[in-house]
Specification:
The structure holds two protein chains of two kinds. By secondary structure, chain A is mostly helical. Chain A is built from twelve helices and two strands. Chain B contains ten helices and no strands. The chains are: A mainly alpha, B mainly alpha.
């Protein structure tokens, strides 16, 4: 009897332990939110909420903290990456799911996995030694530019997009494809007019995932984007993004400057939360 | 009977050409799809090839000297630090990740509200960029807990970062274990705990391991989350000292601009690590597939 009691006590205790480990991720998100907001919001208030978000001058020495150039920079760089990465990524995943023979797939899949595994610092280095000189020589530009960051990020989001959209295309019921063939459509036409629309929520989710990756990328971007905090609409000029603003100046910033950088992180964090929310909404709507 | 059987549902090359001349739009689509795949492959081959060709010649034995100094920017201390960082981060993320997955799969009852919240937060953690983790790690571990720039602060930051990876892969692996295993174990009189540790976890091991290995890959390649948590000191670091991992070492070298070649050599080592990690994790995935069949 004693024995049984002890073992049920042990069972209960371990269930509690597992429950505690499960709560850790909730705790982590809560801590991240609390520490970021508690350190960033006061600075936003001090600078002025609108002044901070829409100010076009970032000059910490003169207490000018406007992050509009960085918001613009993040949008331009991410948009450019999407223009490059989305078509190539989706078409490649179509190829992998519906066109390539099994033998080729065995080679392609590891290649995509490898692209996903390469550290961002290696991508950044590649950008510095290959892309920047290339753009400097062929365009009227110093090399470090929006264009350069967009190309590099376009490559970096490829595996993210392929990895998420290929299973989505595969998941479409085979009968859709067969039905289209039976109606006389060619293989390509069946894939593009029947399979892709059926997989659209999965593909869209993949693109949103790519947006998140591009928006949050730091180390590769800081090496190739130039980092000038200015408003420019020229793709061949340098700009600064939200992420690079933090990583460039955090090392030596103090007082309000430091808090303004944390507030930059808060803005980025809010963007990412919105994107995450969109992602899970799309995924959920796809399931229904 | 000398004529070979010819399947009617297979097109010869001639049929195909005929079909494509009749449907030029289809041919264009075929071309586009093919070109995209070629671009993806060539990009990777060029990137890896370029790094290897330009980095391998500089991979000299002196880069693996035990001491770092300004004349010889050895990467050995950074390699040792990387190993320590991986070990420390896994020490926290693996037990918590596996424990959480066990709770979600084995204990939580259907309709448990907590499960939804845990999944949502794990998904949120997956999407947070590493620079935000870095900021949080600096604010919480470095400043609030007073650990200053240290390997431990970096490792805890990374532990939170890879926690959802370990959790999700473990969860998937646990779900793959057939219910009959558990029923058999219960039927033989084993308790829940014993069933989990002796039956379910061993069966799910390849999946769990592949998640752990994926996490190692992320830890090794991470820079943004470590610069302001573990710092960039060059020596071999103890748990409470500041130290740079291989990826940060490479960032500092390429940023200074004086040591491009050594940075390239470091990139070669990082690439090798990624290659090994990918090979091992796909091997484990195959093993999991085989055990399922």
């Amino acid at each position: 009897m004693e024995n049984i009691n002890r073992s049920t006590a042990k069972e209960k205790l371990m269930e509690l332990v597992f429950l505690i480990t499960a709560v850790v991720s909730i705790l982590a998100v809560a801590l991240i939110c609390i520490f970021l907001f508690a350190n960033g919001i006061p600075a936003m208030k001090e600078i002025g909420f609108l002044e901070f978000l829409t100010g076009t001058v970032w000059r910490p020495g003169n207490d000018k903290f406007g992050i509009f150039p960085m918001i613009l920079g993040s949008i331009y760089v991410t948009g450019g990456a999407l223009i490059i990465g989305v078509p190539v990524g989706i078409l490649t995943s179509v190829f992998m799911a519906r066109f390539c023979p099994a033998k080729w797939y065995k080679v392609l899949k590891p290649i995509v996995n490898l692209l996903a595994g390469i550290p961002s610092i290696v991508y950044g280095f590649f950008g510095v030694v290959v892309l920047v000189p290339f753009i400097r020589e062929h365009f009227d530009s110093r090399g470090e530019s929006i264009l350069c960051a967009a190309i590099l990020l376009g490559i970096m989001i490829l595996p993210t997009i392929i990895g998420a959209s290929e299973p989505a295309i595969r998941a479409v019921d085979q009968s859709y494809y067969e039905g289209a063939l039976a109606l006389g459509a060619t293989h390509e036409r069946s894939v593009f007019t029947v399979l892709l629309p059926a997989a659209k929520s999965g593909i869209f989710a993949a693109v949103v995932l790519g947006v998140g990756r591009a928006l949050g990328e730091t180390m590769a971007v800081v090496m190739v984007v130039g980092n000038q905090p200015r408003v420019t609409h020229n793709m061949l000029e340098g700009i600064r993004t939200l992420t690079t603003n933090i990583v460039m100046e955090m090392g030596y910033a103090t007082d309000l400057h430091r808090e303004a950088l944390i507030a930059t992180g808060v803005v980025l964090f809010v963007f990412i939360l919105i994107i995450n929310f969109c992602f899970s909404m799309i995924k959920r709507s796809g399931k229904e | 009977m000398d004529k070979k059987l010819k399947p009617i549902n297979q097109m010869s090359v001639k049929d195909r050409i005929k079909s494509y001349t009749r449907h030029p739009g289809s041919f264009v689509l075929l071309l586009l799809v093919g070109i995209a795949a070629v671009i993806t492959v060539i990009t990777l081959l060029f990137l890896v090839g370029y790094i290897l060709v330009n980095g391998l010649p500089y991979l000299k034995p002196s880069l693996f000297a035990w001491e770092y100094n300004s004349d010889n920017v050895s990467m050995m201390p950074a390699i040792v630090n990387t190993i320590l960082m991986v070990f420390l981060a896994l020490l926290f993320s693996v037990p918590f990740g596996i424990g959480a997955a066990i709770y979600l799969v084995e204990y939580a009852k259907k309709g448990n509200k907590l499960v939804g919240v845990v999944r949502l937060t794990a998904e949120t953690l997956t999407g947070i960029p590493s620079i935000i983790y870095g900021l949080f790690g600096m604010l919480f571990f470095v400043i609030a807990l007073g650990w200053s720039y240290s390997m431990l602060a970096g490792a805890m930051t990374l532990a939170i970062m890879v926690l959802p990876t370990v959790m999700r892969t473990t969860e998937e692996a646990l779900l793959c274990v057939p219910l009959s295993y558990r029923e058999g174990s219960f039927g033989l009189g084993a308790g829940k705990l014993r069933t989990i540790f002796k039956i379910v976890l061993p069966a799910a091991m390849p999946g769990i391991l592949s998640g752990v290995i994926l996490s190692i890959g992320r830890i090794v390649g991470e820079t943004a989350a470590l610069i302001y948590t573990a710092g960039t000191m060059t020596g071999m670091a103890g748990v409470m000292d500041s130290g740079r991992t291989l990826a940060i070492h490479m960032y500092v070298l390429s940023n200074e601009g004086l040591h491009k070649n050594e940075a390239n050599a470091t990139a070669v080592i990082l690439l090798f690590i990624v290659l090994i990690i990918n090979a091992v994790s796909s091997l484990l995935a195959k093993k999991l597939e085989a055990s399922k069949a």
